Structure formats: structure tokens, C-alpha cells
Amino acid sequence: MSRFAGRTVLVTGSTGIAAAAALALHEEGARVFVVSRTAEHVDDLLRQLGATCAGRAADLTHEGAVQSVIDELVRKFGRLDCVYNVAGISGRRLGDGPVHEMTLDGWNQTLANNATSQFLVCRAAIKQMLAQEPAANGQKGALLNMSSTLARHPEPTHFATHGYAASKGAIESFSRAMAAYYAPYGIRVNVIAPGLVATPMSQRAQQDPQILAYAQVRQPLANGILQPNDLTGAALFLLCDDARMITGQVLDVDGGWSVSEGPETN
């Protein structure tokens, strides 16, 4: 398949879900530009992607860094067609948690790394898309932002990180508002909301027998924790021309989390 032949795609993040998507995009003909905070992870992924792709390390909470990423991407590839906004954090170690225990720093850092970073990437990307000529499909670009099932389907026992849920809810509202505004300009904005996925960010959950047992019931299609590639098909669909009439949508890719009840607790 070559759904992304001739297209330039920015992927934020360089491990887990982002890495799986970047590799699949490259296999389908995309020129992928990868950016995340950790240079070692970026370099490792670029070695797998090969010479037709590029990337760099940058802190996406800083607007100057984000703009420099877009500028470098355009200098190298000439245009920006798609964005997959994956990069984000769990703020638990920073002070996120139930609201009565949460620190202000935990709240601020979680919102900055999840919601603010996606705002800055979307702003810089949309400015570029508005300035460039439409692609062959008549549209100027597509953005796919990363939410979480916890934005709308909370789990108070194992995942009581209220700042994280708030940051993901903000991403969904922000994305719908952008989708409505930019549709007449030929720019699509959608959201993917995964369940519990085996990524470096979810190491705590992957090592907890109670959470693993919970995931078997709450994510019955996966019989446990999802793998990064379980999201790849949905993500590439929403970014490609097959979804050219889809915008403003939140797609749950959660193994059944949103329609399943967790184990009974005493």
C-alpha cells in the first residue's frame, strides 16, 4: 500500500505508539519527521526509518522549539501534510493524582506536556498548512491528536490521575473546535482515544498484577493490555484520504474499555 506516497507526516513521540505509527507510515510511502524530547529515542527510530526520513529532539512545551521543528521540516520536505500528535506524559511522578492530593506543579506539568504541547504543535502546523497549496485531494492537511479513554471513561481505583484526565478532555474539546473552524480551509482534525497500551509510559500498570487482571475484563478484545500496533491501523486511516470526509471525531481504540465494566470490587 502507498496511501502516503509523497506525503510528509510529522509524528510527535519516538517510542511505543508513535514509533509503531512512524514505521507503518514510512512503509506506506510517507516522508516521516519524528520529534520528541529524548534524542537517543529519536536517533534509534531514525535508524529504523532510514535516510528518507528525518527528525530531532525538542521540548514541545516551548513555542520556539515547536516552530523551529516545523521550519526544519518544511526546509527539508517542502510541505507538511499530516500530524500525528502522540507525545505526552503520565504526571503521576510529578504530583498528579486524586485532586485532593494533587500538587499544583503536578497539574501544571501534566497540562503543559499533554494539552499545551499539542496546542503548540497544532498552531504551528495549521499556520503552515494554511500557507501552502492544497494537495491532490483538494485539502491542505490532516491532524490526529492523542486523547485517552480516561477522558470520558474514568477508572477511580487504578487510574486516579485527575490532571491527566483533564488534559485529555481538553485535547478532545480543543480538537472539535478546531475541526469546525478549519473544515472550510480543507484541514481535518480528529482524535484517537486509546485504552491501556503497553508503552514505556505504562510500565507501572504493566507490572501490577491487579491492573493486569482488571485489563483482561475491561479490555476484552485484547484480553489484557493493547499493543502499540493495535492503534496503527486506525491512526493511519484517520490521516489518509480514505477518511477525507471525516473531521471532528473521537475514535475509541480501547479493546472494549468504553463498553465494558471492570471487575467487581468489595
Topology record:
Layout (H helix, E strand, L loop, with lengths): L7 E5 L3 H12 L3 E6 L2 H11 L4 E4 L5 H15 L4 E4 L18 H28 L9 E6 L15 H21 L4 E8 L8 H4 L2 H10 L10 H11 L10 E4 L13
Parallel strand pairs: 1-2, 1-4, 2-3, 4-5, 5-6, 6-7
Helix pairs in contact: 1-8, 3-4, 4-5
For this entry, give a set of tags.
alpha/beta, single chain, 7-stranded parallel β-sheet, 266 residues
Protein described:
- The protein has 266 residues and is of the alpha/beta class.
- The protein is built from 8 helices and 7 strands, in the order E-H-E-H-E-H-E-H-E-H-E-H-H-H-E.
- The chain has a 7-stranded parallel sheet with strand order 3-2-1-4-5-6-7, with helices on both faces.
- Helix 4 (104-131) links the parallel strand 4 (82-85) and strand 5 (141-146).
- Helix 1 packs across helix 8, helix 3 runs parallel beside helix 4 and helix 4 packs parallel to helix 5.
- The chain is globular and about 50 Å long.
Helix % is 40-55%
H-E order: EHEHEHEHEHEHHHE
Rg, Å, rounded: 18 Å
Q: How confident overall, as mean pLDDT?
A: 95
The total count of strands amounts to: 7
> Which shape, going by the Cα principal axes?
globular
Biggest beta sheet summary: 7 strands, parallel
Determine the strand fraction and express it as a percent band: 5-15%
Count of helical stretches: 8
What are the segments in which pLDDT stays under 50 over at least 5 consecutive residues? none
- Terminal CA distance reads 50 Å
Q: Structural class, judged by helices and strands?
A: alpha/beta
Q: How do the strands line up in the largest sheet?
A: 3-2-1-4-5-6-7
